[in-house]
Amino acid sequence: MGYTETLRATNIVHNILKNKVKKGDIAIDATMGNGHDTLFLINLIGDSGKIYSFDIQDKSLYNTRQLLLKHDIDATNNNINLILDGHENIDKYVKEEIDVATFNLGYLPNGDKNIITTAKTTIQAINVILSLLKKGGIISIITYYGHAGGLEEKNAIVQYAQNLEWETYAVINCSYLNNDESPLMIIFIEKKQ
């Protein structure tokens, strides 16, 4: 998968989220990566909102701090929490209800492709986030499954999402139907009640 495919998928997610997320919201970036979703969410939630961003790699925290600095955002602000830990441990840090969460699964672009997200920890994280999600809140998940372990993770997420109760959650997915070179799926989960 090339960078442009990821960018287009991220743009789809961002276009949907910018119509849902508002100033003062509580957000989670479950896979901080290079900080682009963190920056996007900070710009939506403003100074009155709060964000928790997670990654297991020091490089991700460094890259995110640099990106925020480039945009004149102080990463030491009390409302910005850059956390060096796996997303499966969200409940150790986040105690309040949240409005939005994002996942961009796979591996760190321009990083070590052997360090990947996994089905087990991602499902744990989604489960925790759903328990924290407010009514009307939304989770976006971009899953790239063209690498070792990626298909297993995607299949586990799809199975998990298919089994969520319709009365409580609306689940939508989209993927490229005409491009086998870009194995990618976007899933949205919205809490209805």
Describe this structure in words.
There is one protein chain. The chain is an alpha/beta fold and 193 residues long. It has a single domain (3-191), classed as Rossmann fold (3-Layer(aba) Sandwich), CATH 3.40.50.150. 34% of the residues lie in helices and 26% in strands. The chain has 5 helices and 7 strands. The longest helix is centred in the first third of the chain and has 15 residues, at 3-17. The radius of gyration is 15 Å and the shape is globular.
Keywords:
193 residues; alpha/beta; Rossmann fold; 7-stranded mixed beta sheet; 5 helices; 34% helix; 26% strand; globular
First-residue to last-residue Cα separation: 36 Å
- Strand fraction band? 25-35%
CATH architecture: 3-Layer(aba) Sandwich
According to CATH, what is the class?
Answer: Alpha Beta
Strand segment count: 7
CATH topology name, in short, is Rossmann fold
Strand order of the largest sheet: 3-2-1-4-5-7-6
Treating each run of at least 4 consecutive H or I residues as one helix, how many helices?
5
Helices and strands, in order, run as: HEHEHEEHEHEE
Radius of gyration: 15 Å
Low-confidence stretches: none
The chain-level mean pLDDT equals 93
Shape: globular
